[in-house]
Write a structure and sequence with these properties.
The protein has about 425 residues and is α/β, with parallel strands linked by helices. It has two domains: about 5-30 and about 325-425, Aspartate Aminotransferase, domain 1; about 50-325, Aspartate Aminotransferase, domain 2 (3-Layer(aba) Sandwich), CATH 3.40.640.10. Helices cover about 40% and strands about 15% of the residues. The protein contains 15 helices and 17 strands. The strands form four sheets. Strands 4-13-12-11-8-5-6 form a seven-stranded mixed sheet, sandwiched between helices. Bound molecules: pyridoxal-5'-phosphate (PLP). Pyridoxal-5'-phosphate binds near residues 93, 95, 135, 238 and 240. Pyridoxal-5'-phosphate binds near residues 133 and 134.
């Protein structure tokens, strides 16, 4: 709030495509797709029409004891995104979806009578990845590994274990991407140490967002999946950022050719139009809960707006746009253009290191004099970029571009020169 005193919030008057139009007449590139959700940009006319059509019919009806054609069609489409994950549970936002997935895993493990140490039922353990982020509720903060968000609430946290020493890569061309055999033994021993009470491993597959826009080895994900399957541990893939094409495939798990037990979707699900999330559930977990009422097998989780009809209508249309506009193919070419442009920013400024990226995201860290802890170099770059025409939010000293997946090439070249100027203005290069 104090920052707003000398840099007031930007008043939006309208938004279209990759651009935000401010009340004072300025126009900014939305370089972070409004917290990573505007996969198809702002104001896509087909999404607007779908929303209007649904509003003419009905906007929201309790999704318990009722159904409708839109939610049925959406569920069928979502249930065919990954083989075996054919069941769908709806919630309202990303954090809630992760909570639902973890509750399902813990409950299913209980129903399966998983035994802990010394023959007693042990407390189910959860493990997640270093630098992970899964949301802002008490449980999702406990699963996350970004101290600035979670430290003040440590007293609320459920105990979770962290897997460290991940094989991070600069790109899919990095040798570690396809072979992380050298790193695996140390990772496997951390996993083995959590047995036998480990219930679930919760991950952001391939791309970790809020923990620093990091990309890790597909071979690691493949090995982790094999390990979880072999030990009866659930794998929960939080695809809230990585899903819907952000990494170049519809789901990031596809890079490793794996299917988790549970997958969480949000953000791109409605192309950032309305709050909605979904958990894709394996048929075997669904079967754990399929029983007569009152046998302790009921998953009694409800959110008022679960399956909201307006959101569902937009989500269904977004899936059609992905197909009709060949969005996944476009990410492949956007990826090449993003990488090349960001590399030019790196060489023009000499103030970026650790360049990395995949699909529709590219990132690097500010370096050199002026970037020391406490100097807020990233925040200064953000302010300078706003002055030059881009909403380029940084994560600490990490500068990244995460544009709508259908961004035209000229947006990338404008963003390139704005980023060079913003870094130069901040660090005096
Ligand atoms: C990977 C991941 N999981 C969960 C969330 C939380 O989603 P929401 O902000 O909708 O609760 C986010 C949000 O950025 C995210 O990136």
């Amino acid at each position: 709030m104090k920052d707003y005193e000398d840099f007031p919030p930007l008043e939006i008057s309208s938004a279209a495509g990759c651009y935000l139009h401010l009340a004072d007449g300025r126009k900014l590139i939305d370089a972070v797709s409004s917290w990573w959700c505007k996969t198809l940009g702002h104001g896509h006319p087909r999404l607007k029409a779908a929303l209007t059509r649904q509003a003419e019919r009905f906007e929201h009806v309790i999704l318990a004891n009722t159904t409708n054609d839109v939610i049925a069609r959406l569920s069928a489409r979502l249930g065919s995104l990954a083989p075996g994950l054919s069941k769908v549970f709806y919630a309202g936002d990303g954090s809630s979806a992760v909570e639902v997935a973890v509750k399902l895993a813990v409950h299913a493990a209980h129903l399966r009578g998983k035994r802990g140490k010394r023959g007693k039922r042990g407390k189910p353990k959860l493990m997640s990845l270093e630098n992970g982020y899964h949301g802002e509720t008490a449980l999702t903060l406990a699963l996350g590994d970004v101290g600035i968000y979670s430290d003040p609430y440590r007293d609320l946290a459920v105990e979770t274990a962290r897997l460290r020493g991940l094989p991070y890569v600069a790109s899919t061309a990095d040798p570690l991407w396809a072979d992380c055999s050298a790193a695996w033994p140390a990772l496997q021993s951390q996993l083995d140490a959590q047995l036998p009470d480990l219930c679930a491993v919760v991950i952001e597959p391939i791309l970790q967002g809020a923990g620093g826009m990091r990309v890790y080895s597909a071979d690691f994900l493949r090995r982790l999946r094999a390990w979880t399957a072999a030990h009866g541990v659930f794998l929960i893939a939080d695809e809230i950022l990585s899903g819907f094409g952000r990494t170049g495939t519809m789901l990031a798990c596809e890079h490793a050719g794996v299917v988790p037990d549970l997958a969480c979707l949000s953000k791109g699900l409605t192309a950032g139009w309305l709050p909605m999330s979904a958990v894709l559930i394996s048929e075997s977990i669904y079967a754990d809960f399929y029983a007569d009422y009152g046998q302790g097998r009921d998953f009694l989780h409800s959110n008022t707006y679960a399956g909201n009809a307006l959101a569902a209508a937009v989500a269904l249309e977004a899936l059609d746009i992905y197909r009709d506009e060949k969005i996944i193919d476009r990410v492949q070419s956007q990826s090449v253009a993003l990488r090349a442009a960001f590399a030019r920013v790196q060489s023009a400024t000499g103030r970026l290191e650790n360049l990395r990226g995949i699909g529709g995201v590219v990132a690097a860290d500010l370096c050199g004099p002026g970037t020391e802890k406490g100097r807020r170099a990233g925040y200064c770059v953000y302010r300078e970029a706003v002055e030059r025409g881009a909403l380029l939010r940084t994560l600490g000293n990490t500068v990244y571009w995460l544009l709508p997946l259908n961004a035209p090439d000229e947006v990338i070249s404008d963003l390139e020169s704005i980023t060079v100027q913003a870094i130069a203005a901040t660090l005096g290069v």
